[in-house]
Design a protein that fits this description.
Layout: E1 3-6, H1 14-22, E2 26-29, H2 30-38, H3 63-98, E3 103-109, E4 115-121, H4 145-152, H5 160-165, E5 170-172, H6 179-188, E6 201-203, H7 205-209, H8 216-232, H9 235-251
Parallel strand pairs: 1-2, 5-6
Antiparallel strand pairs: 3-4
């Protein structure tokens, strides 16, 4: 036996816990095990609110935030420059397919709950939400032929690089949610609002680890990765997420709801 996993609120077996520790056996609770082995912190295992941001130590003007902002500006400029020919081609293909709008915009919840408008290359048919806001799914019939390609490669997200330059978003962070859906999620999922203590990102720890999300259960799983990111945010982790995102783009495995 190398280790023992106990429940988070297990305070009734201190003698057994001491016995294991005295034998050199590691003892961790379920929340810590998920953090160490799965690299996520499930919200339903959290006993008190402090655990949500236990290791979060970033102020608005901290060194890490300034470095993150400089990295956002520099990398966004490079990406915009090198992907400009692709953007022109995508815009042309979107227009030729159904003569509809090239861009699509949505209101999302941003940093500290402030509402922001994000832009994407349109990947769905015109009037896709005439019946109101709804989650998209992997095989959504509203997705166009061009949309399938740009969603799979995440090219539809390229216009959001401008939002990064303007300071509304970051390259890496929790994905911003639509207020209409967020209103439901805030009532259903504990600690969901803590995602907004950072600027939202084009990609994030949840997006590179959990590809699809079209239900409450999926959102809970993605939140577990977001909470992990809040507690482990660093320049190296951002770089790792960026490279994982690039890998997903080239493998065309990005067609997911975000």
């Amino acid at each position: 036996v190398e280790g023992v996993i106990i429940q988070n609120n297990d305070n009734n077996n201190l003698d057994q816990i001491y016995f294991f520790k005295s034998k050199g056996i590691s003892v961790v609770n379920t929340l810590r095990w998920c953090e160490l082995m799965l690299h996520r912190i499930p919200p339903y295992l959290i006993v008190n609110k402090y655990q949500v941001v236990e290791k979060f130590n970033l102020s608005d003007d901290s060194y890490k935030i300034r470095v993150k902002r400089l990295g956002d500006i520099f990398i966004s400029f490079l990406l915009i420059f090198f992907t400009l020919p692709i953007s022109f081609l995508v815009a042309l293909l979107i227009y030729l397919e159904d003569k509809g709008p090239i861009f699509y915009s949505q209101i999302r919840t941003g940093y500290k709950g402030k509402k922001i408008r994000i832009y994407k290359f349109r990947s769905m048919v015109k009037d896709a939400e005439k019946f109101g806001p709804q989650w998209s799914s992997k095989k959504d019939k509203r997705i166009t032929k061009v949309g399938e390609i740009i969603r799979a490669t995440r090219i539809d997200e390229l216009p959001q690089l401008l939002s990064v330059l303007f300071g509304q978003m970051s390259l890496i962070g929790p994905r911003p949610e639509r207020p209409e859906l967020e209103e439901i999620l805030l009532k259903t999922i504990p600690y969901y609002n803590y995602r907004n203590i950072l600027k939202p990102g084009i990609s994030g720890w949840a997006q590179v680890n959990y590809q699809y999300g079209s239900s409450i259960e999926d959102t809970i799983n993605k939140l577990s990765y977001d909470i992990y990111y809040l507690n482990h945010i660093s320049f190296l982790l951002d770089i790792y997420i960026l490279f994982k995102t690039i890998k997903i783009v080239f493998n065309a495995k990005g067609n997911r709801q975000i």
